[in-house]
Amino acid sequence: MAIELINLEHTFSEGTPFEHKALDKISLTIDTGNFIGLIGHTGSGKSTLIQHINGLIKPTGGTVVVDDLDLSHKDTKMAQIRRRVGLVFQYPEYQLFEETIEKDIAFGPTNLGFDKEEVSKRVVEAMESVGLDYNEYKDKSPFDLSGGQMRRVAIAGVIAMKPDVLILDEPTAGLDPRGRDEILEEIQTMHDKFKMTVILVSHSMEDIAKYADKIIVMYKGKVEFYDSPSSIFKESERLIEIGLAVPQVTELMKKLKAVDPLVDEGIFTVEAA
Ligand code: ADP
């Protein structure tokens, strides 16, 4: 499902002393089935952008179109958007609320109006996708799980709605390195299996460079770069300027280039500052 942003703008508190332009004339197309990494310093506009792609925020200028649905149109209903675009918020485990894992994951597809049989099928499939055994976990309380497992339940709740576009806001935040790698691998597997378009928001170049077809780099409400990971790594000096890489990487790169001028910048994965 192609996503098209045309001159997208968002100004918070327009016309007041607190007026703030969070998104400034963003135009880009995300092709169906792509795995997109979205990176930028805190406050660069990542959250505001993804909330436009799932209709939670309406633009103050420009348009957001997902396939044939104009999300920015005043008559477009949230229910229409929900079927297409799923958003996993930061720390989604705080939004779990049902007594059992099965009920929690069933909530979304039930609300979309699917019958019991279809909902059950989706719950089993979604749990398997995030590595939770259905029979072992279905009757447990989500609150008896570890943080990483709770997060899996929350992600499964969105997967069970079978969105064409899955957006995840910092899905690895607060997890240990092992938990982080496991979740990212599961997201990659789901992307391949369900042929979903994935937008993964992250602070970590390392995390997204490994999985993304293309990376959107945001800076002060604008898109600074939108390209393949290898092309973006060639911009290491600018990445450092906008707070997205540790300076040592450039220093090290200079030293390596002195030895071998053809050394490929892509050998580095840089972590956000
Ligand atoms: P990021 O997700 O990259 O950290 P955000 O999209 O949350 O960035 O924020 C972009 C800018 O918009 C920031 O300067 C932030 O303070 C501002 N902002 C975000 N939400 C609101 C809001 N509800 N009201 C006013 N300003 C906001």
UniProtKB/TrEMBL annotation:
Record-listed E.C. numbers: 7.-.-.-
Enzyme class: translocase
Stored CDD domains: ABC_cobalt_CbiO_domain1
Superkingdom, natural source: Bacteria
Annotated compartments: Cell membrane
A GO term for molecular function: ATP hydrolysis activity
Record membrane topology: Peripheral membrane protein
Coiled coil, from the record: none
GO CC term, one of those recorded: ATP-binding cassette (ABC) transporter complex
Domain ABC transporter: 3-245
UniProt xrefs under SMART domains: AAA
UniProt keyword terms in alphabetical order: ATP-binding, Cell membrane, Membrane, Nucleotide-binding, Translocase, Transport
Subunit composition and interactions: Forms a stable energy-coupling factor (ECF) transporter complex composed of 2 membrane-embedded substrate-binding proteins (S component), 2 ATP-binding proteins (A component) and 2 transmembrane proteins (T component).
Matching PANTHER family: ENERGY-COUPLING FACTOR TRANSPORTER ATP-BINDING PROTEIN ECFA2, HEAVY METAL TRANSPORTER
NCBIfam families: ECF_ATPase_2 (TIGR04521), PRK13637.1 (NF010158)
Purpose: ATP-binding (A) component of a common energy-coupling factor (ECF) ABC-transporter complex.
Family affiliation: Belongs to the ABC transporter superfamily. Energy-coupling factor EcfA family.
Identification of the protein by name: Energy-coupling factor transporter ATP-binding protein EcfA2
The organism's taxonomic lineage, starting at the top: Bacteria, Bacillati, Bacillota, Clostridia, Eubacteriales
